Sequence to fold (353 residues):
Amino acid sequence: MNRLIDKLAILLICLMSLMMTDSFTAPVIIILSAMAVSTAVQLLTGTAAAAVLIAGFSLLCGVFPVTLCTMPLLLYDALWEKKWWLTAPAALALIKLGSLSAGQIMITLAAAAVAVIIYIRVSGLEQTVTKLTDLRDEVAGKNQQLAQQNLLLAEAQDNEIHLATLKERNRIAREIHDNVGHMLTRSLLQSGALIVINKDEQLREPLESLRDTLDSAMTSIRESVHDLHDDSIDLKKVVEDSLKSVEDRFTVKFDCDVSEHLSGNIKLCIIGVIKEGLSNAVKHSNGDSIELIVREHPAFCQLVMEDNGSCSEIKESGIGLKNMRDRAAALGGRISFTPSPEGFRIFMSIPKA
Fold:
């Protein structure tokens, strides 16, 4: 749009030169021809056809010198095409320069100067706009990268805090189990011994009440320690640490989708089966990749572990497979092993109840 406005200003100056011609028909034909060629050049910008149009119109100046009055318009197009030398044939008009008045020559030169000045200013402005646009895009890209890095940093900090919290919970659970639990157990034994050796019937009921109170406290402690221990097991982190031990041998693909509130028994079962499966893969598999999927569903948890090593049969007497079966059976789950020429597959399902 800006280029059309600039060309309109140049065209008006060219009209001033053409109006000084005695004839009426020739200027109209020339100005319409110049506008048509200039429009075509702009539509065909960057092509050989545009260059041919500019050079052809320039050659007309040698035949019709009055055409030189509109050459500033084509000069402007030639500058945008980066081929200003295409207007050189217009110099042929110098042979018949006497057919143009001094006023027309002066106005034409002024129009050419205006065309060059406008091109320099507008092209410079466009270059500046392009640089600013590129800079804006670069800044936007940097901001996006910075936002992603900040997000990753925040996630890493959250993970560190989460792991530190889990470690502290595990430490508290051990402290309660080792200290308070042992003291309550000793108190229970002592109260039981007192009840056995007691001969005073009046003390029997208070001693039995004391034993029941200690037993209730012991049950509460066990439940609290169990909950703390369950929360302190980060299933995904433990599995990822286990997978690192086989990364030099296998390409591992791990997909885990479980909640933080999954029972500790189920977490330990899944971890145990995965470690046993990895150990078997290192010992017996001739493959180079392992795919591991752990999923939590509303009623059960699912484990799928598969490598791409060829395996036609399995030894049912293997202690590793028996350990995995025992772990699953202890929680009421099911586990199956599927050997095939394409790989060895472990599938386990454990109910959450």
The mean pLDDT is 78.
